[in-house]
From TrEMBL:
Region ranges (Disordered): 158-200
Annotated source species: Micromonospora olivasterospora
Protein name per Swiss-Prot or TrEMBL: Molybdopterin-dependent oxidoreductase-like protein
Top-rank taxon: Bacteria
One term of GO molecular function: oxidoreductase activity
CDD domains reported for this sequence: SO_family_Moco
Coiled coil, from the record: none
Pfam families from the UniProt entry: Oxidored_molyb (PF00174)
Oxidoreductase molybdopterin-binding domain ranges (all copies): 269-400
């Protein structure tokens, strides 16, 4: 499970980092040196792309916690083996083991605290999580390479030779004393994981697997509702993904207007959307925006914490606003928010994100005006774009022409 699950967590995490547009310096951390990923335009199709990658990254990371703990429990004798190394090869293995165990525990602990908004660490989460992921990945690859021959032979050998019939579900199951009483220690193994003086059995292998699998299923049940609207009340482990009140605007929100410092007065009759392109500037009030051709699209919005939802948005196409500003084929666009401070009070959109036919400056959602917490008077919504870059309380967009524009 870990050989399949952990690479998926790693790959989806790196894809999510790429989705933030590192070439614009808006992915966190912005400067990663030689660990930077190949630069490419994050696609807008399929529209649910970021919803799947980020949702899988968070949900799978949570579901694998019992499996990771069970794995660590099963190798406890090796973690405290003394002396720590008897040969250069064993020393290398011990170093990869230290980085592997420390890395996975660090990534799990900081990741869970972050999605709960429990910032108990005195360092930048994004920087630590990114570089920590690379440390863990390198240790994971090295450790798998070192243990691959043993892994292959163990998988080919089938059930341990000492496994009684009762532990494999064969004859004898249900006799007085039960399968635990009939369970026998495994014979010594090449890795020294079997205790030399084992105590009486307390659980069968089947019982241990059932416990781990049951805990993983429980965590999945308490997490999956963050992305499935009818089950949203069951997302007890991710309270910010459970909703935001009743009505058409009752879907989750991370940063409310009060927390962002946006007041009713900022979004009143004097509000204007300013479009700029080179030296040209166009100002529009909300009534003028509503008078422009409106487009409706059902699009998901997905948060870095893992929750997501799909809603029906109505507004003006970004490409129509670009044409109005005099840049029908923009190379990028800088979107600015009324939010006074914060990491995401502005966002740069790529050319394909501005030009997508469903990329909107949304004015309404589910047939009603946006609520203030959801970005009234206007917010950006773009297919497959991370939620924090679907900027709320937009007051200015600077369209930038390409080299030939």
């Amino acid at each position: 499970m870990l050989l399949v699950g952990l690479p998926l967590v790693i790959v989806t995490g790196l894809l999510d980092y790429a989705a933030y547009g590192p070439r614009f310096g808006q992915a966190l951390p912005p400067d990663v040196g030689w660990l930077r990923l190949p630069l490419f335009d994050w696609p807008t199709r399929p529209a649910w792309l970021f919803r799947v990658t980020q949702g899988l990254h968070v949900a799978l990371g949570i579901v694998l916690v019992p499996v990771v703990l069970a794995k660590l429990w099963s190798v406890i004798p090796k973690l405290f083996d003394w002396p720590p190394a008897r040969s250069p090869a064993q020393l290398l293995e011990r170093v990869t083991l230290l980085l592997l165990v420390g890395g996975i525990l660090f990534q799990i602990a900081t990741g869970v605290l972050d999605i709960q908004y429990a910032y108990l660490f005195g360092f930048d989460f994004y920087t630590a999580h990114y570089f920590g992921a690379w440390v863990f990945t390198a240790a994971f690859v090295a450790h798998v390479a070192l243990k691959l021959p043993r892994l292959v032979s163990a998988l080919r050998s089938g059930p341990p030779r000492g496994a009684p019939a009762t532990d494999r579900g064969g004859p004898g199951h249900g006799r007085p004393g039960g399968p635990v009483a009939d369970t026998r220690p495994e014979p010594p193994d090449p890795d020294g994981l079997v205790s030399a003086r084992p105590g009486p059995a307390t659980v069968t292998r089947r019982g241990a697997l059932t416990l781990v699998g049951g805990l993983s299923l429980l965590l999945a049940a308490l997490t999956i509702g963050q992305s499935i609207d009818p089950l949203r009340r069951t997302a007890l482990l991710l309270p910010r993904g459970r909703g935001h009140g009743p009505g058409p605007n009752g879907f989750p929100v991370n940063r409310a207007a009060a927390a962002a410092g946006v007041r009713d007065a900022d979004t009143g009759p004097d509000w204007r959307l300013t479009l700029t392109a080179g030296g040209r500037q166009v100002a529009l009030d909300r009534a003028q925006l509503l008078g422009m051709p409106q487009h409706t699209a059902e699009l998901p919005i997905a948060c870095v914490e893992g929750w997501s939802t799909s809603q029906t948005w109505t507004g003006v196409r970004l490409r129509d606003l670009a044409a109005l500003a005099g840049v029908p084929e923009p190379a990028s666009a800088l979107v600015r928010s009324l939010e006074k401070a914060g990491l995401f009070n502005r966002a740069v959109l790529q050319a394909n994100q501005v030009r997508d036919p469903d990329a909107l400056l949304a004015l309404r959602v589910n047939g009603v005006d946006l609520s203030l917490d959801h970005g009234y008077p206007a917010r950006v919504i773009v297919p497959a774009l991370p939620g924090v870059h679907c900027t709320k309380w937009v007051h200015a967009i600077d369209f930038r022409p390409g080299s030939g524009g």
